[in-house]
């Protein structure tokens, strides 16, 4: 049977990995797909560099749209990133009747609803396993492997750069700025690391997973996003003493206790019990925990980025599309797991409606009655205390650190309590607040 013909747009790190994996594993891929998969067209701005980097025989063109709509191309692989040109090329490929594979999480998190609707109208597939957690097959797990389950929540370490930084801060006791420079030197962080360290990259990925888990439209603009730039080595050390580790987590949770139902969608630094497996994911690795009613807790772990790990997911999508190339569109797995006419309209909850527990660090005057005033304010807002740690003052010091762990409470209640505590004359610095999840 004639090989499926692929138009590859982009010639960067992931595209190079795709070319290598397809060449090296062609026999295995053919046995699984039922026919060969061949990159026959490549679109890139710098053609000499693309030929040298990819090292494959194909028709090279600097006209990216021509590759996306070429009549001989069956599947378009978009690997250029961004949300403007990539969106235009993907929509034109779909309009030309091409299936699409993309590793572009930002594109799908922001424009996924429009792209999936266009693909449905044309009867083509958009596959995106590589868009979330690199080589970890979390999209397939959520969309197919767990389809019998009612998913309750997902929590993931889904950005390798931030996990490397936090791992180094914990292991070496260094502050954020020092470790960031080292991460950039080693190539773990970009020259401009904003998307990673501010949590935006993780939020793109979480938005996609949440939509698949709960059958809602992609709603990146409703996600709550906090990065790790304000984290201090002091809090990582205190968390360790209390039996916790701090990770940048993406968390999405179904909530049935609010009037109309709702979905939590949030990315922020989080204390996790050190005994949890996900708390022990170190370096640039990724991990996702899924809690579902039938199967219970499952953990997916592996490399979340890199040339061949991400290429592994891209090629897996190519195999899936090749298998289903001639299938009736109505009998394919829906893009977001749920049938389009059965999507939920459950809203994304505002952060003051989120329920979680908290780590608080207060720098307070070392005098009698301070703790009782603090705990009194928490009690006024029905916030119960799980643990208290007070650092002994050195001789001559007039201030000390007071660490409080709370039980679950509404974020809105905690916000009100924090405002009152911050106003106390005995609270001498801005209060540090980090959310805490038991993930039980």
Key terms for this structure?
440 residues; alpha/beta; Rossmann fold; Alpha-Beta Plaits; 11-stranded mixed sheet; 37% helix; elongated
In short:
The chain is of the alpha/beta class. The protein is built from 15 helices and 17 strands.
Q: What would you note in describing this structure?
A:
The chain is an alpha/beta fold and 440 residues long. The chain folds into three domains: 4-127, NAD(P)-binding Rossmann-like Domain (Rossmann fold, 3-Layer(aba) Sandwich), CATH 3.40.50.720; 139-303, Dihydrodipicolinate Reductase, domain 2 (2-Layer Sandwich), CATH 3.30.360; 352-436, Alpha-Beta Plaits (2-Layer Sandwich). Helices cover 37% and strands 24% of the residues. The chain is built from 15 helices and 17 strands. The strands form two sheets. Strands 7, 8, 9, 10, 11, 12, 13, 14, 15, 16 and 17 form an eleven-stranded mixed sheet that branches. A hairpin with a 6-residue loop joins strand 9 (244-255) and strand 10 (262-273). The N and C termini lie far apart (51 Å).
């Amino acid at each position: 049977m004639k090989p499926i013909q692929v138009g590859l747009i982009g010639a960067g790190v992931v595209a190079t990995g795709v070319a290598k994996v397809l060449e090296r594993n062609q026999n295995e891929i053919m046995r699984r797909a039922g026919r060969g998969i061949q990159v026959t067209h490549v679109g890139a701005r710098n053609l000499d560099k693309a030929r040298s980097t990819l090292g494959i025989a194909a028709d090279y063109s600097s006209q990216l749209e021509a590759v996306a709509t070429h009549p001989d191309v069956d599947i378009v692989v978009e690997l250029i990133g961004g949300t403007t040109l990539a969106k235009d090329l993907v929509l034109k490929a779909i309009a030309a009747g091409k299936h699409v594979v993309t590793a572009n999480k930002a594109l799908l998190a922001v424009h996924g609803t429009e792209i999936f609707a266009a693909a449905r109208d044309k009867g083509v597939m958009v596959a995106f396993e590589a868009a979330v957690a690199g080589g970890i097959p979390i999209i397939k797990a959520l969309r197919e492997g767990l389809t019998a389950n009612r998913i309750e929540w997902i929590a993931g370490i889904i950005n390798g750069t931030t996990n490397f930084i936090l791992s180094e801060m914990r292991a070496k006791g260094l502050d954020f700025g020092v470790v960031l420079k080292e991460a950039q030197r080693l190539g773990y962080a970009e020259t401009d690391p904003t998307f990673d360290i501010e949590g935006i990259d993780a939020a793109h990925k979480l938005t996609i997973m949440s939509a698949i888990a709960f059958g809602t439209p992609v709603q990146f603009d409703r996600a709550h996003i906090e990065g790790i730039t304000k984290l201090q080595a002091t809090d990582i050390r205190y968390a360790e003493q209390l039996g916790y580790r701090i990770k940048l987590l993406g968390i999405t949770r179904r909530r049935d206790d609010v009037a109309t139902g709702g979905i939590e969608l949030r990315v922020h630094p989080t204390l996790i019990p050190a005994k949890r497996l996900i708390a022990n994911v170190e370096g640039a690795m990724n991990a996702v925990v899924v809690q579902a009613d039938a199967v219970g807790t499952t953990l997916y772990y592996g490399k979340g980025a890199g040339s061949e790990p991400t290429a592994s997911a891209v090629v897996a999508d190519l195999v899936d599309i090749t298998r289903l190339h001639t299938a009736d569109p109505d009998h394919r797995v829906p893009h977001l797991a749920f049938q389009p006419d059965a999507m939920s309209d459950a809203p994304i909850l505002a952060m003051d409606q989120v329920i979680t527990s908290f780590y608080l660090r207060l720098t307070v005057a070392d005098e009698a009655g301070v703790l009782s005033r603090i705990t009194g304010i928490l009690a006024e807002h029905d916030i119960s205390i799980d643990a208290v740690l007070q650092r002994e003052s050195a001789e001559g010091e007039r201030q000390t650190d007071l660490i409080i762990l709370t039980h679950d409470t509404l974020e809105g209640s905690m916000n009100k309590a924090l405002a009152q505590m911050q106003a106390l004359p005995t609270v001498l610095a801005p209060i540090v607040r980090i959310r805490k999840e038991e993930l039980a």
